[in-house]
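[job 4471] stage=fold_predict status=RUNNING
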Amino acid sequence: MKVAQKIKKHTWGKVVDLVLQIVDIGPARGFLIKKAEKKLWQGIVEENTEGLRPAQELKYAFVRNLLHTTDKHLRRGIMSKEVFHKMVKVFVRNVFIEDIYERDIRKTEGTEAVYPCYLVLSPTQSCNLRCPGCYASSGAHTRASLPWEIVTRIIKEKKEFWHSHFTVISGGEPFLWRDEGKGIIDLAREHNDNFFMVYTNGTLINRDVAKRLAEVGNLTPCISVEGFEQKTDERRGQGVFKKIMEAFEYLRNAGVPFGISVEANKENWDEVTRKEFLQFYFDEQGAFYGWLFQYMPIGRGYTMEKMVTPEQRLEMFNRNVWAIKEGYNYIDFWNQGVMTDGCLAAGRNGGYLYIDWNGNVMPCVFIPYYVDNIYEVYKRGGTLNDVLYSPFFKEIRKWQSQYAYGKPPSEQDNLILPCPIRDHHQIIYEIFKKQSTIQPADDPAREVKDDPMYHENLENYDQFLRQVIDPVWEREYKQYASKISK
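[job 4471] inference complete, writing structure tokens
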């Protein structure tokens, strides 16, 4: 096993060397990209005999897209060489190769320990916008924030215990967070061996902020949009779209790669999955990547009526597969569970957990319930690693392993429907009823936890989902798994 891991690490190391040469030897880029693609196909598809072939091919397409987008952005002059080198050294080498290799080694040592790939951290709930349906219920009136010493300790411990060098920052609005005179960019500078992706509304990114981001080189902003100008301003406020366009321009001029974060609901799902949307944000505006989330009825002003229908969700899945194959780095968070081997929550191996501005430790941002609080864990002499073993987290990981994660392809259930709160709501509801120590993170979470009709509506929704999505899983994925097992 360790020999195989070393071979795999050596393969990926060659990819890194080729990627670095792509920027340094401009005239030879086409040749070098083809060599890198061959190595990628070998490492992701051919060497992985335990994964579903269609899923592995999508993973390959996504990484290939990142390679081609990097080349395109370097040619356009919207990614600086300095930022590129920092990205390769920190993200590709530290996160994509070293972290995975080290975690694989630890998992073969015979322990029952789990090693998440990253965590999502919201250092502040404060926000300069007040968007309807905000999962964090954030706004100018919300002041809860984590102190610098807690935030930096969390990042240090995840590196130490999990060999994790990738950190996602959410909010609230992360660029509003300040403590001890320091903010998000200072955090990236302090932990320059980490790569940070920051979800932001983009309105606070000006020329100076973009310049500072270029200087640190290990932070990429992921800016929220709801579609084009009309849909974005309808939810986020008049004039926000124009501010986002200005932020894009500042980031392009500074050579900082950025992404987009999109929430699809019943009203805008068609717009945010159309070819014209992709062409505008990726081809014209220069977005490097994008995350597509589906409306989840939690947070401020939640309603079942805004959820995409099962039929709309299927069409979103089909369009997203097309987008990835066509070269766009655009991932549908729920629909592409086939690319993540299912649900990532509760600190699963290769997964993540979420810590909010109050220090509450949750399975993910869409399951706003907790048992542990990081302040209390530290106060009693514990560490970040202790939160992984709460009965709440262990129960979710138990379901993940029963459903799909770690199983042979022929035994996996539908990975297009990976989520225990959205796609299999009965699972999370049963855990709530069994474990009395689980606490809601806010008033909306408390309200829905005690509302039988809310749970009934989501369970009914899930039944319709399976009727629509299961045939696709059987036809496009399960049949292939059956061939492997013969």
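[job 4471] summary: The longest strand covers residues 219-225.
[job 4471] exit 0
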